[in-house]
Amino acid sequence: MFKKSPKFYLFCWSSLLGLILFIFIIVNILNIKDKERDKLTLNQRIELALNISKYRSNQTINYLKKRGGVPGRKFPLQTRKPPFSNKIYEYFPSLYFEPQSMWVYGRYHDWTLGFFPALLWKIQEAETDTNRKKIWINYAKTWSEPLRNVDFEKIKDVAANNVFVFRKWYDNSSDLEKKEQLDTIIKATEILAKPYINGQGNFHEEIGAFGTKRQAKNHDKQTHWQIFIDHAINVEQLLWAAKYNPDLVQSKLWKQQAISHIKTIGKALQKQQQSNNIGVGQRLYFDDDIDSSTYRQFLFSEGKQGWTDDSIWSRGQAWFIYASAITYYYTQDPEILEITKGSINYFLDNLSYRNFYSKVTNNKDYIAPWDFDYAKQKKLSTERDSSASAIVASGILKLLKTLPKSDPDYAKYVNSVENILWDLTSSTYLPNTDEANASILKYACYVHPKSIVGSSMEMCRHGVIWGDYFFVDALVEYQDFLRNNAH
């Protein structure tokens, strides 16, 4: 039998050590940018994040033009990784597959179509250069105009596709152009605010909430009044329109509907969360049978994108945090404040890092897992949802605009926002412009395929357009917060 010489073993060990050294060098090279960013203050990181956001948004516009994603037909939805090299698409842009981490289109009927125009309006708000600001406004108008005639009888995400877009156009226009934006917002709000009568309309006056008739999938298989938690942010549509609507009767009704909707959801969630720590489902069912002994009462919730019906789906909780916070901002209703603080505290208390009074950290524990219960019961290191934490940061900042500094949770909320933004502005979630990435943020978990449908986890590694919008919104809101609280 052949006997290996000492030189052979020396060669193997030398090769192994060389490989280890090579990997060590590469890892350290890759970490240089991380270390450089960690030396920046939070304010400096936010400035960097806004510049990266401008770059990404401009690249997205150019990419969509090149690939036929024109306003009114296609909009950025989420990013994905294709099977081939990016270089192929530089020479053959008409190929079907997109390059690495480039946008997958949403169609005109998708719920997300308004987030990119809304993002462009946020970018212009953050822009300090007068000439560049005009360019961003023109971009925003171009991408906003096609949304003017969206059918909100079919697309129930009214705020995302209307007031998020046209209120900023309203702020940046005058005279007839300004009136056109207000008319567009009021028209959409009138559709949203229609009472449910004979199978038509959105607001159930007896239950006191917006929703639709829907058959339960996992429980009794019966049809009930269903509230979709994602649509909670529609209250901003009602509240903004109520503030600017010259019809005072309509305004009063819209404000009452928004308050009633949040209180109805809030009481249902409190009932769940006080018993067995049950989380927020995506669909909440109420008894709308007038002959039933439980008429108007909350029955149960069902999940769709969370792990289970009873688990704490982080983005569902985030939607309600934002909705309740914006409602308090407009109304100053003390009961809404209690509901808002309860939803925020419930979210924060389920994060793995709980020292909310700390200085900014590097722990990256303020980015919520896609489902809190899945993280606690199955896998602590499960995929994060950067969009959920971005929504929460934006919502808390809305609350801080009117929350008294004497409130016992004030400092906790400020530090929580700062830690969330610190983590979101890390290179883990916010890649530099030299990285092949289309979205501003990475690691937004639209849905967790492995636990929900048993496929790969690819969808949790890239970006989503609403995550980018709420991230930039939070950056702009935080800068405003600092200016308003400067001593």
Could you name the key traits of this structure?
487 residues; alpha+beta; four-stranded antiparallel beta sheet; two-stranded antiparallel ribbon; 8 strands; globular
Shape: globular
Query: Uncertain spans, ≥5 residues at pLDDT below 50?
Result: 22-31, 96-100
Number of helices: 17
Q: Helix-strand pattern, N to C? A: HHEHEHHHHHEEEEHHEEHHHHHHH
Oligomer: single chain
Strand order of the largest sheet: 5-6-7-8
- Rg calc: 24 Å
Helix content: 40-55%
Number of strands: 8
* Fraction in beta strands: 5-15%
SS-based structural class? alpha+beta
Measure the end-to-end span.
Answer: 83 Å
Question: For the residues shown, what is the average pLDDT?
Answer: 86
- Characterize the largest beta sheet: strand count, sense, and whether it forms a barrel: 4 strands, antiparallel
Q: Explain this structure to me?
A:
- This protein has 487 residues and is of the alpha+beta class.
- Helices cover 52% and strands 7% of the residues.
- The protein has helices spanning 6-38, 42-66, 86-91, 115-126, 130-144, 158-161, 163-171, 175-192, 235-244, 248-273, 314-331, 334-349, 372-377, 386-400, 410-424, 449-452, 465-484, and strands spanning 74-80, 102-107, 203-204, 209-210, 212-215, 223-228, 283-286, 298-302.
- The strands form 3 sheets. It has a 4-stranded antiparallel β-sheet, with no helix packed on it. Strands 1-2 form a two-stranded antiparallel sheet.
- Helix 10 packs across helix 11 (314-331).
- The chain is globular.
- The relative contact order is 0.11.
